[in-house]
Amino acid sequence: MKKKDIRILLVDDEPDILEIVGYNLSQEGYQILTASNGKEAVAKAKKELPHLIIMDVMMPEMDGMEATETIRKIPELSNVIITFLTARSEDYSQVAGFEAGADDYISKPIKPKLLVSKVKALLRRLKQEDGKPSGTLNVGGIEINREEYKIIKDGKEIVLPRKEFELFYLLASKPGKVFKREEILDKVWGNEVIVGGRTIDVHIRKLREKIGEELFKTIKGVGYKIEA
Length: 228
Known about the structure:
Layout: E1 7-11, H1 15-26, E2 31-35, H2 38-48, E3 52-55, H3 64-72, E4 81-86, H4 91-100, E5 104-107, H5 112-130, E6 136-139, E7 142-145, E8 150-153, E9 156-158, H6 162-173, E10 179-180, H7 181-189, H8 199-211, H9 213-219, E11 226-227
Parallel strand pairs: 1-2, 1-3, 3-4, 4-5, 10-11
Antiparallel strand pairs: 6-7, 7-8, 8-9
């Protein structure tokens, strides 16, 4: 996919942030869309279907957490890449961000060049998907369609955010295997993206809630386990 075809939605209630970040990313050739609060972001995301959303957390009307949760419930937006750009870098805030459905977390302040590098790393996932094998897995009565990013259980579709789907597909492709943490981060997030140490645990817990504990244990044999 060419840069000129990639749409990035910037969401922040500070005009200066929108201007600075928007300028630096537009200079790279991306299409830049903006929104000043979560409510506006949801509406614009529905209309424009961006490939990446850079979301502030603390905003009026609807904050970034709520906006992300709302966006993840929209089928055509369930796989959009979402990263938070916020001054709140505490560990609990990052965990809350991943709980809401974010793929990554960027702390303010950040230098323009570093931000551009982070965005390129996030968007590299779009290219990586073109080279990933397609196909359908059938495990424990669940159908996992890698090509269409669909999970069918008992005739009903389960919608998962992109990273949760990638993680579930990886685990289901090798039932019973004990994965090392580094291997999961490399295959699901890519070794060029730095994420918090609790990211995997948060995503695993959310998968257990959505897929069902018993089925999840069946897929993993004796349950989920990673090596430090």
